[in-house]
Write a structure and sequence with these properties.
The protein has about 300 residues and is an alpha+beta fold. It has 7 helices and 17 strands. Bound molecules: adenosine-5'-diphosphate and magnesium ion (MG) (2 copies).
Length: about 300
């Protein structure tokens, strides 16, 4: 239907990692497009087997189970990569992002289910088992040491971005050059659709302001108020935890991060939500090529900071 003729648009959707995953590809025929979808979603399923915190047998949970044993545990290339990126983001965000928050995330999950706010001692006990400096990585041996018993890794803050990035690699291997993977709001984009100058992506501040962007060869992620929160005594706590207090964020933050890598944009949307506008202004300089839109709501007060162009 265009001068570029041979390529058609195909769109596929699948529920994965607890979220809707959507793949768009421009391909020469149905069978290539379907193969791309099978490879992309298959890759996400493979990663979920490794990184799911819901299955005891997942590689990440088996690794956590060895915490405090003093053993360096050899891990798959995939698990090593995601932990390596996590650690590097932790260092650059002064711990606003922390992949070792598992014990605290688990505690809040149980509390939400029971509707009982955890006691201060319970929070302190869970917090005592966290801290990214207790996770050591050895790239040469592709192995991990968790120095303290009871540690638990949780890649919820960047797993979907990583999955999107990896899924797009599969699509590219098939020679497809125009593709988009939207992994529950964590988006990775390759070249623009044929005959256009970019993918049309809308982002918003969650209320009155909308931006229509044309983007390509980049990634973006939004973290924000979802149905995933805990309400106690009329107060809402986000599922994003402040690693200093061990408590879900109290104020309402919505963050969009745009940067060259999907794993990092996902991690940064989470980290900048924790850091808030003022600290993010400094932190973002450590991530070249990154723009952000951060909206903080504290009661009636709304503060926004936006460096996203267009
Ligand atoms: P979502 O994946 O729900 O869109 P995020 O990417 O912000 O949103 O990830 C939130 C998840 O990350 C939480 O459910 C939890 O598993 C984990 N998490 C919570 N707080 C942090 C934090 N400070 N650093 C890293 N991961 C976190
Ligand atoms: Mg997540
Ligand atoms: Mg995230």
């Amino acid at each position: 239907d265009s001068v570029f003729g041979q390529e058609k648009r195909y769109s596929f959707e699948k529920g994965l990692m607890g979220s809707p995953f959507k793949l768009v590809v421009y391909a020469a025929n149905d069978s290539i497009a379907e193969l791309a979808a099978a490879k992309a979603f298959g890759r996400v399923e493979e990663l979920n087997e490794i990184m799911s915190d819901y299955r005891d047998g997942s590689e990440i949970n088996r690794l956590s189970a060895q915490s405090g044993s003093g053993k360096w545990v050899p891990v798959s290339k995939d698990l090593f990569e995601i932990l390596d990126i996590s650690l590097s983001v932790s260092k650059k965000t002064k711990g606003a992002f922390d992949v070792t928050l598992g014990p605290v995330v688990q505690m809040w999950r149980h509390a939400t289910r029971k509707g009982i706010f955890p006691a201060q001692e319970e929070i302190a006990a869970a917090m005592q088992k966290t801290g990214y400096s207790k996770m050591k990585l050895n790239r040469k041996a592709s192995s991990v040491l968790l120095t303290q018993k009871g540690m638990r890794l949780d890649i919820g803050g960047l797993g979907k971005g990583f999955a999107a990035e990896e899924a797009i690699k599969e699509v590219k291997k098939l020679g497809i050059t125009s593709a988009m993977m939207d992994a529950g709001g964590k988006i990775v984009l390759t070249n623009p659709p044929p005959g256009t100058d970019g993918w049309n992506i809308n982002i918003s501040n969650g209320s009155d302001s909308l931006k229509a962007l044309k983007l390509s060869n980049i990634s973006l992620a939004t973290s924000g108020p979802t149905y995933r929160y805990m309400e106690y005594n009329g107060v809402r706590y986000s599922h994003i935890v402040d690693p200093v207090t061990g408590i879900g964020l109290l104020f309402h933050v919505r963050t969009t991060a745009i940067c060259p890598n999907g794993t990092i944009s996902d991690a940064l949307a989470t980290a900048f939500s924790v850091a808030g506008i003022e600290k993010t202004k400094k932190m973002v300089r450590k991530f070249p090529g990154t723009t952000v839109w951060l909206v903080e709501r504290k009661g009636d007060r709304v503060a926004e900071w936006n460096t996203i162009k267009q």
